[in-house]
Amino acid sequence: MKAKRLSVLLVCVLASLGLSAQAVTVMGTVTDVSDGQPIPFVTIMVKGTTAGVTSDIDGKYSISTTIGSTLVFSFVGYETKEVKVTKSIIDVVMRQDTRQLDEMVGVAYGVEQRSSGALFGSGRRKQKKAEAAYRAAPSPSPQYSMYDNMNAEDYNKVVENRFKSASEDPLSTFSIDVDAASYSNMRRYVNKGEMPPMDAIRTEELLNYFSYNYEKPTGNEPVKITTEVGECLWNPTHRLVRIGVKAKEMAGEDMPASNLVFLIDVSGSMWGATRLDLVKSSLKLLINNLRDKDRVAIVVYAGSAGEVLPSTSGADKQKIREALEGLTAGGSTAGGAGIQLAYKIAKKNYIEGGNNRIILCTDGDFNVGVSSNSELETLIENERKNSNVFLTVLGYGMGNYKDGKMQTLAEKGNGNHAYIDNMQEANKVLVNEFGATIYTVAKDVKLQIEFNPVKVQSYRLIGYESRLLNKEDFNDDTKDAGEMGAGHTVTALYEVVPVGVKGNIPGSVDDLKYQKPVGTSQDDAYTDSPEMLTVKLRYKEPTGSKSKKIEVPLVDKGGSDVSEDFRFAAAVAMFGQQLRNSDFKGEGSYDKVVELARTGLGEDAQGYRREFVRLAETVSGMVK
Q1: Superfamily of domain 253-437
Q2: Percent of the chain at pLDDT exceeding 70
Q3: Residue 198: CA atoms inside 13 Å, Cβ hemisphere, count?
Q4: pTM (2 decimals)?
Q5: Cα(75)–Cα(270) distance, rounded to whole angstroms?
């Protein structure tokens, strides 16, 4: 009998042990005790382990653990809460930490006390102890973030350029654009088996993802214009004009000293392998290129902003790497405060005659303080006007990616914008195109094309919708425009309807009843020139304030004999128009894109053009 009771007791003990080790998926919602609102980006970790997740935009979370374990809920500005796991549904209510705390900034090698308002300004004296405690906690194990599968991405609306009459609007003016973020973002969608959103496609950025064999500048000019014209492959009665601009190249040893500030978003939405982990790996590639005379500071922002590494010589690469490795993600996103602090530190360490630049790494999800597009635009414009500090914006992540804000920051901050979806793209942007990404050789670069109405009925600029300028802006040196880095190439395409083409002419209107058009016998204002158009370009030196002008005419001699680069650029433009379901896609198709691109592969040492063919083939299969 006694043996039987012991046996029963043993079974109960074993059952109890089995229950305590039972695997369970815990789900729930995290809310604020004061108003019941969900709290996004809360870090939830299994105590004593490195397993963790963050709550989504609705405060919901899901984590795998065991019955009997303890979950730790932490968020900047809130009291940390521990909950023992006894069931699979656990809703958590968190209370704000209202204690008056000293302002503290986590520094890579200690903690620095700051007086009130010295760094964060009024209203930023709370939450520092909670933030420091979070940063001291173990990092969640590397994995893809829950945001990867969200559908909260944001893109600025693109209203496609239309045909214009050469007699009524002979001037087309726009800022150059060296950004290529749209291409790598498109590739990310296609590689997931999805079609990208229409407004995610900026055709000029697809074109400018690739380098072309343009003539290099000679003499003292930092840029050189190349032109070419041939048949428009999606509308054979039209002509296609290619305008290329090549910036001068610089050898590494000839580049000026750099004063760099890495501005890194470490908010909750940046947690995961495709976000902060990829940021760290990317910037390590850049660190490898630093010389002893270069300097790097690191600024981070989540609920507030702080300097993690003071300006450090490129000779001390290990110190910079260790500062990067110490970063973890969690909290809300005070991006405006981070930008202001980064500019402050860049100006503090300014190198006369050097390359002074902020490199911002973020998903663009700003939600504390200055956060709207208009507010950020004003902030960046003010900083740009008061300094010669340039801005490079590197976008990361998916599902929660705010492309619209990234584009605004890059366009208004004398900078460029790239989307880093993997280490291959990081290598392209920060190693293969290091000079183009980091070193500006010409700023405020504008193009103005004058069309000859004797040769051209109407024309359409393909892409550059967000870069259009008024015709008067071309000669106005106070108007901001794009920058070109060492070795950069910029490509623009115009679809042109020649004089003499019959039918429903794009961009045409009925003859006026009460006045005669310019160029009639009544007012013969047209010149008898063989030129189809003239390309005018203005640029400033990197630290200059007065622009210089270059002009190049183009004569269309007819025919269809064009370069490999021309055919490849035409294929990329056709692809962009297909993805956007353009009103002007004409006879284009994905199959024609593939066929045309294959005739323009050229040497393709890095394999980027062949990758484009693969992507076009994939999309062709998807739509079929």
Answers
A1: von Willebrand factor, type A domain (3.40.50.410)
A2: 83
A3: 10
A4: 0.76
A5: 14
